[in-house]
Design brief:
Number of strands: 7
Distance between the termini: 49 Å
Shape: globular
Strand content: 25-35%
Order of helices and strands: HEEEEHEEEH
Largest sheet: 7 strands, antiparallel
């Protein structure tokens, strides 16, 4: 008889933890941009939707983010120390000789904006790599 309440409690804890992962992105805007002479890409994510621009004069494409992708984004976001992104080091320097577009990641949380230094599009710093790759993948869908 004691096992039934234990199983119920375990279930409630799992449901509560799962909803917390997506709640972590409440009041958060994540913006990734990559710019060069021949490329303009801006991906802004907020409240389970993405606004994507692939050209400066283009109309934005607004996408609904699937629950699976939203949970993946929330999971990767949770691993990031947001104030520390201002100090990440770019692993490559191809942007200095037109070998890659200049990219950056901007996170606005509760009215405070944190931004990475410039890095090469396609070669994000390790601390934010998985999150950046998930954002860029939204543009390919």
């Amino acid at each position: 008889m004691k096992i039934i309440p234990l199983l119920f409690l375990t279930f409630l804890m799992q449901v509560g933890c799962a909803s917390h992962k997506t709640d972590i992105l409440k009041d958060v805007t994540i913006e990734y941009s990559a710019v060069s002479r021949g490329l303009y890409q801006n991906i802004s994510v907020e409240n389970k939707s993405a606004v994507i621009l692939n050209a400066r004069a283009e109309q934005p494409l607004v996408l609904e983010i699937s629950d699976k992708d939203w949970k993946a984004i929330a999971s990767e976001f949770e691993k990031i120390n947001v104030p520390a992104i201002a100090n990440v080091k770019a692993p490559t320097e191809k942007r200095f000789y037109d070998g890659a577009a200049i990219a950056n990641l901007k996170i606005t949380k509760e009215g405070k904006t944190n931004e990475t230094p410039a890095f090469d599009h396609g070669f994000p710093p390790a601390e934010i790599e998985k999150l950046v790759n998930l954002l860029v993948a939204l543009n390919k869908n």
